[in-house]
# Entry
Amino acid sequence: MEIIRLDDLTVRFTQGSFNKRIIYALRDVSLSINENEAVTILGESGAGKTTLARVLLALEKPTSGKYLFMGRNVWKDRKARKLIRKEVQYIYQDPISALNPSKTIGSSLSYPIKKHLKLKGEALRSKIFELLNAVGLDESIVDRYPSQLSGGQLQRVNIARAISVNPKVLIADEPVTMLDASYRIGIIDLLADLKKKMNMTLVMITHDLAIAKYFDYKVGGSKSFVIYGGRLVEEGYVSDIIKSPLHPYTKFLVSSYIDINGNYNSLEFLKYKEGGISSQGCPFNERCPYVKDACIKEFPRYTSIDGRKVACYLYGG
Ligand SMILES: Nc1ncnc2c1ncn2[C@@H]1O[C@H](COP(=O)(O)OP(=O)(O)OP(=O)(O)O)[C@@H](O)[C@H]1O
# Structure
């Protein structure tokens, strides 16, 4: 069953006070995510990934378009927004700044449990210990402060806090990017495990194809939404996207991926030009080796190919 649906959703910002510039952090994005599904949002810095997460958390009101959560129109229904406060939880990229440095771990974990589950006293204490066990942390950590923990331990605390209210959806925004390499696998394994145990929808946001690939393996298959310059350019299963990317941006992403043996597809990679995000037509048109006149004028329509979706004139548009 569908839990999240975006229909032609746009988030527009104005930057600068003298030379005003319009930025489309997201532009006409439509997507659907099912209950208990694992998905990845793939894109480089500035693609609109964090804005998308903020939209899903109902922290960012779209400029236009619709966000439906469990079938309810979020910006026409105050109760839906209240529901989201509990049912959609977020894990930040930076595990340190996500926690109050002056509060013990126990105290940081208490807040959402008291607020949403109304537990106190012994029930609250045992819930905190249950959570610490669930994320693989020792109970003794409860009286420590964030500065006394490693990055990996801190991210586990953040995960414990996010799952404390039994959310339906967990959004992990680059959850391992700021961690030492040795902690990364453990955190992804934990997220995949929790997803299975708690029947959650898990949205993994990443710029790193290697992380998307490992996550996909751990959850046993996941759909990916590739975004560039605020546009959804391709949608499909991660395994298909890596095997045969369709959109030129996805091809670029896959060809830039260096595996553990130092291999990458340098011939494909070299075709791509330097350039920014184009505000007219396809946002990738400045860098695309396959660019045509149409790509500069108008963003193409989506084409379906073998159950996948792509927006590119190479496939019709
Ligand atoms: N509040 C804001 N005001 C103005 N522009 C914004 C605002 N938030 C985001 N943007 C712009 O929208 C675009 C998308 O930003 P977003 O943070 O969503 O990208 P991202 O993919 O998460 O990148 P990163 O990983 O670097 O955070 C960027 O050009 C950014 O500068």
